[in-house]
Predict the 3D structure of the following.
Amino acid sequence: MKKIPLAAAVLALSAVGLAGCGADAPASGTASSAAAEQAHSLTITGAWAKAADAGGMTGVFGTLKNSGADDLTVVAANSPAAASVELHETAAGADGAMTMQEIDGGFIIPAGGEYLLGPGASHLMLMGLEDGLLAGDTLPITLELADGSTTGIEVIAKDFAGANENYGGGADADADHEHSHGTDDTHGTEDTHGTVDH
């Protein structure tokens, strides 16, 4: 039986070890894919935005749905159509009146559940619209999740006459942030749906 020198044996074992390390490489790729899967679990239905003038602001509504096994948190959003996008909620102010304010912690969509965005409730707020938004226009928005993954949606603009809503932060802030997407219940009857690009 032919004997293998010790040095050759060590080299052979090292090569096996390196091959083993190489075999583990896809695991990190799988982890990245798993992170991307969080964004794939998020969809939106009934998505729409209130028509608004250039330079103004508008609210975006719809139902966020999570098809995954873990809770999802939308922490930020942006759109090329607006200077900034904020995630807003309805909360009681110091005087007890309900006001709109930026939400702390984002929108949490439970596993297998839904999160409603609606007039007078939580919503996306687009501020500093680049162009006027007319009924029938589509509005692109990117949602960012807590894990850093993102997904793009498109919403349809429609005419909507709602009541003005107030924002916390005093009279000046209210004047600067007043908008009219209101609490009219008719928003749920529109047959407009967002599309999600993965």
Residues 6-40 form the longest helix (35 residues). Residues 6-32, 166-198 have pLDDT under 50 and may be disordered.
